[in-house]
Amino acid sequence: MPSFVHVFFSTEGNTYRLVHRDKLTNMWNSVFAEHRAMSPKCKGTLVIDNESEKQVGLCWQEAARCTKCEYKSGRFKLYHEVRAGKRGPKCAGINRTAAAGLTKTRTDKLGLRVLMLSMMHPAPGQTALQRRSNEVCDRIEEVVKEDLTRERTKVKEVCRIRGDEPSTSGRTVIDIESDGQYNNPIFYGSAAGNTPYQSGTQTSYAVFENVTHKKKCVAVDIRSKLCNIGHGTEKECPTHEGICRANVKEQESIGNEVAGATACIKDLLEDGIEVGTLTSDADTDAYRAARKLYVTGKSATKPKHELCTVHVSRGQKRIVKKQTFSNGMLPGRTEVQLKRTQDRFSHDVARRCTSECNNAHKQFAGDTKKVERALAKLVPVIISCYQGGHNGCRSLSFSCRGNKGNNWLTNTSYLPRTFRIRPNTADIAKLTTCIEYRLGTSMLKKTSSNRNTNKAEAANRSIVASVVRGVTYTRNYSGRVHSAVNTLNRGLGGSVHYLMGKLDSPVPAGSRVARQLLSIQKMREKQSQWHATDKAKKARMAKRKARYKLHATTMKDREGYLGRGIYKRGMLLPGPTYQQRIRHDHGDYYALDARRRVKRAIKTLTQKSTKHTPKSKKSTPKRKKTTQRGTKSRKK
Question: 48 pLDDT exceeds 80?
Answer without folding.
Answer: yes
